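Worked Example 4.2. Consider the chain below.
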Amino acid sequence: MHNRSDQFTKSLLRDGLSLASAAETEVEVLAATQKIDVYSVPDPARESERAAMGLLGELSAEPSLFEPFNGTPSLRQVRHCLRKQLTWHHELERRVRSAARSVAPDEDTDTPPQPAVAFPALVVIGPGRPETVLDAYRCEPVQAGVYQAVPGLAMRVVVLAELPRTRATLLLRLLGSGRRFREAVADLAALPRDAWEKSVAVPLLLHFGFDQQEPTTDEEDDVSAAIQAWFEEYKQQLRNEGRAEEAARAVLTALRVRGIAVPDILRKRILIEKDPELLERWLERAIVAASIADVLPDLS
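Applying the procedure from the previous section yields the following structure tokens:
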């Protein structure tokens, strides 16, 4: 996944899941030249946060591979995801065996059986209903827009077009396109200022340039214009009201997207900064930076 929408999708899933899980993108499957788009492991200490995350929280209640698609996924594409799921489980088992040997490398007796490694779930996300996939794997609806394959596969299919327009589905609906995306952004704008969805999604929307006006059909003009006005208002708030916390998170998000590591001392420095104009300059640098020194030359 290389274009703007793909990177936004993976970043939004990762940052949303990170509220209650250890989540990372492009996880290498060492046994093959494959990468998991987003891999999430739930944190038991953050169960209350997960419970408030709506459908995304439900989907991340167990270790899971998230594989989003811009188009409706084909049977071939889903088979590729299933191969990653099986290969990743094999890799997790290998790591457990390796860890056991490192703990007791000189034991003469047979190594006792290791606890079974939980088989990770697979969550396939696409805009439309993949009929061939649903038929091939005997998927049954478990709620509006969500289908469960036969139990042995541990696979769920999320159809964005079928998700109800509720707050519980909002973060996932932001993965859509066209009018559905614009409606999701409008729903995001209507949330309270301190909504967790805004803290996750807004910095990414701004970073990936989704605040820019895009061509629309006549029937979409009203929705698009309202969203554009909200983006402008939000950016003005960042400048005029000193929304330092959101601006600081946007800087860190931009650095993460660029693949730039931020030492803890500099991360804290960014988060405590209260000058919105300085944070805006840092954000402009971070979007094109090659290193942390390009963003904070006087501090790094």
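The chain is about 50% helix and 15% strand. Residues 75-103 form the longest helix (29 residues). Compare this with Example 4.1 before moving on.
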